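Lay summary

Proteins are chains of building blocks that fold into shapes. Our project writes down both the chain and a compact code for its shape. Here are two examples, one after the other.
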Amino acid sequence: MLSTIGSPPGAIKDAAGSMGPVVTEGNLIVGAGARLSQMATMARAARVEIGDLVSCTPVREVPAELLPPGPDRLVLKLENQQVSGSFKARGAAHFIARLLAQQTPAGVLTYSSGNHGRAVAEAAARQGLAALVVAPDSIDRVKAAAVIEAGAELVKVGPTTDERKLRAEQIAAERGWVLVPPFDHEWIISGQGTLVLELMEQIGTFEHLWLPVGGGGLAAGCAAVASVEMPECQVHTVEPEGSAALARSLQADQRLHLEETVSEADGLLPLTIGELNWELLSRAGVAAEVISEGQLMASLSILHQRLEILAEPSGCCSSAPLLAPRSGAALPGGTHVAVVSGGNVSSERLARLLSPQ
């Protein structure tokens, strides 16, 4: 079952919903090209603002013998080696830096399957802020331990993003704390977009960029920057078949809300794409790819066993169409870059996923 989400074109929600301080950068109710350009401009500013707060993560070229027919090169951007173990550190650091430029909140909180929660907890700790993370009962123990180690409170609820969001909004209203959204905010999106600027400094321009999609923060930020800085670059979004909110929304030409999402890629299970994220992605000309769980597990195996890259299942999503393409898939030439988005996974879970079935 699917439901449409009715919102007027260009509508943007306050990041904290109906409560808490308003934290917005400016008016993004503009045309498609201008909106993408404005987000790219914000990402360039964010690159300077968070330069000392996040890592410049390495890139690694995949050996030619592992490439399918078509691509000339495949380069992996290793965000699993980022601060907090994932790309989420970029958006979290940017949001909190911009927030503190406006006010000193009593505390910050968020809702997350794990990586964004860890990133917010650690960014808050660096600034001496109290923090709380609402997470699913099924949160990976490595992610849960990192949140607690950073000094944040951890509140566990049901499995869906909607449940986590509702509980986080309730706590924010009770405490007067600021909610740091996981993906649907311009500070988060532009923070994630710094990844493309960093990539261009490392390897120059390239023809294809492959990005995982959950709520769409990374994809929206990177697509906006790429559309301005590398207009000839094709951005490919990749989702598990059991959680393909963006692909199905693009096909329907409207933002959809899934009834449920299922995948081992636990960081990519929101029921819908963020509102602002949808506005950007639906206008950026992205090519949506949906992968099977078999492709996801094959990508995980290749990254770990052939390339010795510690990636969590969500972090293997973007490389799956290239390392484990569907039979008969036709891939274009040129230089392809795939983002290994995170590496926060317990050894027990990893062993289970990599064991022969």
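And here is the second example, written the same way.
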Amino acid sequence: MDRTKRTIKRVVTCCSAMLLTIALVGCSSGPENAAAPEGSSKPTQTQVLDRSVTIEPTTLVDDAAITVVADSLSFKSDNLYINLSFMNKSTDKLSVTAGTAGYDCNYINDYMVDGGWFSADIEPGETVQEETYFNASLLAMLGISEIREIGLGITVKNSQYNTLFQGPVNIKTSLYESTGEGTGNYQNAMKDRSVLSRLNITMKKFSTVEAFSQNGIRVVSEALAENVDGDKSLLLETVNDSTDIAGVRLSNIVINGEMAYEGYWTGEIILPGKQAIMTLNFASMIDDDEQDRFDLNNIRTITFQLDAKDENSNTIIPNTEVTINI
């Protein structure tokens, strides 16, 4: 396949990943007995979000140039919405973003998550209100039913594109001190047939064998999932037990001994003590007319390179080969 076309396909697929999750919300007509791996739990009623949760107005950024406040939260179609206000105290036009490709470290509880994207341009002396949201199906996949803490990776730039502020900020909710079990359990969710049915995926294999551990970065579970179109993905539960913010990257993807994608494929910023679900979507990295060569209906091994750097681009983990046996 032409590398330029493959790169374009990868970009389109990455941009569509969150849209796919959103689409799953409306796909509740999936089969009740969606296939699950051996040992998975019987179908149960999917745990629903505790919508009694609230927040007090929380100042996220407050410096000479700008004040950013999380004013309130609400639920629409079960999705979590955060209402924000931005006050530009400078004499320059400012832009404030979160969840962008350049700096994406949003999280809920202990999980780095997609969603929470926003982009606001604020004129000098102006105050602007915006809202951002997190998808309910994503939270179900992570086993989250109680929203205790919300993190946003915020970037503030001036009209000359100089960065005035960049960093993760957090919002503690009324459930922050809760001792219930709803903080999140991805592994249990991936064994729950009701969750798989809601997501319209079939679990071909789920393993909690630790596939990688080095310098506090661990791959603690591996899931081979298939959607209703027959597209397969490998989901890697990756934990950061170090004290550093880690940018973890996956590259050079090999399936059944054949190079499927050469070069960098995907990456996640994982804050200390947090975890992320890193995804290898095979349909997006392999052209349709090449898929037979990889025998995606009989995946035996998946090999990739994993590396990690801290926020100052110092190496935490050099390129290291990891092999997943299916």
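What can we say about the second shape? The longest strand covers residues 258-270.
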